[in-house]
Request: fold
Amino acid sequence: MNPITLVGIDLGKNTFHVHAQDRHGKMVLRKKLGRAALLHWLMSLPPCTVAMEACGGAHYLARQLRSHGHTPRLIAAQFVRPFVKSNKNDFIDAEAICEAASRDSMRFVTPHTETQQVLNALHRVRETLVADRVRAVNQIHAFLLEYGISLPRGDKALTTLAATVESHSQLALGMDEIVMGQLARLRGFEAELAALDRKLALLLAGDELGQRLQSIPGIGPITASLLCARMGDGSQYTSARAFAASLGLVPAQHSTGGRSTLLGISKRGDPHLRSLLVQCARSWLQRLARYQGPLADWVRALMQRRHGNTVACALANKLARIAWAVAVKRTPFRVDMASTVKTASMATA
Reply:
């Protein structure tokens, strides 16, 4: 039997479909294995390349493979789909993964470390809590509006909500209990969010990369921790522009016939990280008058000829590029180049 040099695995929860090839691309074997049997079989192989889609469970398996001398290759699912032949099944998917992994121009995903996965999990939980909090606030506003009570925007109205409910006798029997119950849930969400933010800050306190990222104007612990989780050391990106492009912060292109057409930002990649960087840019723009230096001068010149939303996206692109440079060069942001001289404080997100 020819030695196996490339293995494609179609991942599942309990069953895995394997397609193995030799160095000529010829199929050597094809089999279906359970989780325990898969790990045992992979550990019995000589070192080879093992390719998988970057989905649930892939990062754990990649770490296991790397510890036993194999070379894991994670591929985004959208890059595997063009290599699926005719009808689709699990073995054909595994073969398509092998075909995609054999391409020299293929883009691979760097396996996450355990620390990165912890940060990712914390941010997923935080996103859920923020959505639940917004939902609870909207419900309170909607319930009270049905009884002619219009609360102003912002959290200030919620702090006096109990007194507002008690002062309005037109509420139906039991509605006051419903509103106060929603308010109690809202306070619970806020307490959980505060605890998560403290945990993220604690994790970043001992992380050198996280401290360097927080030296960038406008970037605080939440954005820095998500950058640590998604970008890592930045070595998987060839340039700062490649990292910004992976977040969808560069123009989409629709060109043909030698005619280049640039559209709005592509919005590819992680929408949560992209939105955080845009919010960082907006918070920095609100305090632009306090800042001096090349970065501030560039932003002021751009605002003379572009809409504010365009400037925010351009600045978010710049922050992403700076973050990549800070991670790759292992040096903090040069405050003397683009920091404020009027105040030491900076808006952070």
